[in-house]
Design a protein that fits this description.
The complex is a heterodimer of chains A (391) and B (181). Chain A is of the alpha/beta class and 391 residues long. Chain A has 2 domains: 242 residues, Thiamin diphosphate (ThDP)-binding fold, Pyr/PP domains (Rossmann fold, 3-Layer(aba) Sandwich), CATH 3.40.50.970; 139 residues, Rossmann fold, CATH 3.40.50. Chain A has 13 helices and 16 strands. Chain B contains 6 helices and 6 strands. Classes of the chains: A alpha/beta (391), B alpha/beta (181). Chains A and B meet through β8 and α10 of A and α1 and β2 of B.
Chain lengths: 391, 181
């Protein structure tokens, strides 16, 4: 049933239905409402998980690491400085192949202090061995959390679902939550195999010492395993959209526009676009509206739901005959360029003649409007191609 | 799509008012969206919140720059915040004030006289709720003046946020303001 709730509440309701046995977190803006709701559910008797109030994010991450290693389904959430404080533990979680799920309510990073949204925080986790998913709206946040547990527990790879801080976490909008029986069926109780969890009857070690004889092979295996989840992540996303019957549809005013969704990447725009935007998260919604209002400009947008693994070959295919690709990054690798821009340029080297330009937008909560998007389509059609700050 | 911008001060329930409008509009069969202007909330500080209402799915995420409706919960914000920034000729404005229109605007009105609706929400709130929390009074006035949402839907929305004595008093406050004019 379609209801209207705050984004954080929708995520908390989804987690409640997924039934982790251990939830541990330390509150930080703008993640706070998610963990407050989860604590309330527990206090009211609506949930059975162990809710552990940690003394820091480092502790929260360590608690879910331990519980996951003991064979339990776990959940945590954080933002910004909180994620940075967790980082050492998060690398370990991936290396130990623990199926932890973490929601990152994306926020900029200090200094200067900002509580507002951008994607700088999660870029710190880029190389840690986590699967990194991004939601455009509350509905996608529901879908991606379900998929996150499915993939994490099957492949023993941790997954983070990213939701734009405030823009999604503090916004009321309609969405469809699954029923408890749908969740039970999609995500049965987590039962790790023997040797996959700590058990005194069957002792195993996690995160053991590895000499040069083994370390590199273990890292290569994790790398390959993450790459190999790609197809299934896409399939599962499509499956859950279908299960909840929530796929976005073309309205009367959009007859000349199309949706083309393969799960990992969604295309929205004209059939034969001249300019394509590529980005992640809630910004895609604003871009879709811009495309709808400016149909003569022949525009399209590719929404990346999975940043790790990066489905670069799929993106390349979906560019078709477009002339310009504007990559919008809500982050910056200081001294170089936006991270997605840098990666796509590398992946597409010698594979396409499309002009690629990187735009840095929305840092520290700077609002992104249709005016900025107009500016981007003007700039990209010039000869210059260095990264530009817009806002 | 209709866009509503709400101005007030921290502690007056500005964000809750924006959310209640969105919930009420959803109950009336519309798509809707409500979000705060992400401040570091402090009691008394100027606060903004936004609501969008549409027949179609709302994808736009930017803030509201050209509102169709303005709800001003505190008349001490005049001269402090640029309340009328981006207003259009047809923008309708609901103001909480004990003053008359020509007392609020000593100079020229920013919009036509008919575009304003003034309600002494603080007095009504003190009478009914016993506290100067004026957002539900403003919602009743907004529902009346805009004709956009049903008062029944606001009451249903209130039931999702409040319960018991507080709920009853807020319903009473909403109805009282709705029946003004």
């Amino acid at each position: 049933m379609k209801t209207i709730l705050e984004g954080s509440r929708v995520i908390a309701e989804t987690i409640k239905m997924i039934k982790p046995s251990v939830v541990s977190a330390y509150p930080i803006t703008p993640q706070t409402h998610i963990v407050e709701d989860l604590a309330k559910f527990k206090a009211n008797g609506a949930a059975n998980y162990e809710y552990v109030r940690a003394e820091s994010e480092f502790a929260a991450a360590s608690i879910v690491l331990g519980a996951s290693a003991a064979g339990e389904r776990v959940y945590t959430a954080t933002s910004s400085q909180g994620l940075l404080l967790m980082i050492e533990v998060l690398f370990n979680i991936a290396g130990m192949r623990l199926p932890v799920v973490l929601t990152c309510a994306n926020r900029g990073v200090s200094a200067p202090i900002t509580i507002w949204n951008d994607h700088q925080d999660i870029m710190t986790l880029r190389d840690a061995g986590w699967i990194i998913l991004f939601a455009e709206n509350a509905q996608e946040a529901i879908v991606l959390h379900l998929v996150a547990y499915k993939i994490a527990e099957k492949y023993k790879i941790p997954v983070t679902v990213n939701v734009d801080g405030f823009v999604l976490t503090h916004t009321y909008e309609p969405s469809v939550l699954p029923t408890q029986s749908q969740v039970n069926k999609y995500l049965p109780k987590y039962k790790p195999q023997k040797d996959e969890y700590l058990n005194v009857e069957n002792p195993v070690t996690f995160g053991a010492f590895a000499t040069p004889a083994d370390y590199m092979d273990i890292r290569e295996e994790l790398h390959n395993d993450i790459k190999n989840t790609q197809k299934e992540i896409g399939q599962e996303i499509k499956k859950v959209f279908k299960l909840l019957n929530v796929r976005e549809k073309i309205s009367q005013k959009e007859k000349n526009l199309i949706f083309n969704d393969n799960g990992l990447v969604e295309y929205y725009g004209v059939k034969n676009p001249k300019i394509i935007f590529l980005t992640m998260g809630s910004l895609v919604g604003t871009i879709k509206d811009f495309i709808k209002e400016n149909q003569k400009e022949k525009l399209g947008v590719l929404k990346l739901r999975s940043f790790r693994p990066l489905p670069d070959k799929i993106i390349l295919k979906m560019l078709k005959n477009a002339k310009y690709l504007a990559i919008l990054d809500k982050n910056i690798s200081l001294g170089e360029s936006g991270v997605l821009g840098m990666e796509i340029k590398g992946a597409f080297f010698n594979k396409t003649k499309i002009k690629i330009q990187n735009f840095i937008v929305g840092l520290g909560g700077r609002d992104i409007t249709e005016k900025h998007l107009s500016k981007i389509i003007k700039i990209i059609q010039t000869k210059k191609d260095q990264s530009v700050f817009i806002g | 799509m209709l866009e509503i911008r709400l101005h007030g001060r921290g502690g007056q329930g500005v964000v809750t008012a924006a959310e209640l409008i969105a919930i009420a509009a959803f109950k009336d069969g519309f798509e809707s969206q409500a979000f705060p202007n992400f401040g570091v909330e402090r009691r008394g500080a100027p606060i903004q919140a936004y609501t969008r209402i549409s027949k179609e799915k709302i994808r736009l995420r930017s803030q509201i720059y050209e509102p169709d409706f303005l709800i001003i919960q505190d008349d001490t914000l005049f001269g402090v915040v640029d309340l009328f920034k981006g207003v259009k000729k047809e923008t309708k404005v609901v103001i909480n004030s004990s003053k008359k229109l020509n007392e609020i605007f000593s100079n020229k009105l920013p919009l036509k006289k008919e575009n304003f609706f003034i309600v002494d929400a603080t007095k009504i709130a003190l009478d009914i709720l016993g506290k100067p929390i004026i957002n539900t009074v403003m919602l009743g006035a907004f529902a009346q003046f805009s004709g956009l949402i049903k008062v029944k839907s606001i009451k249903d929305a209130l039931r999702e946020k409040f319960s018991g004595e507080i709920l009853n008093k807020n319903i009473q406050a909403t109805e009282y303001a709705f029946n003004l004019k």
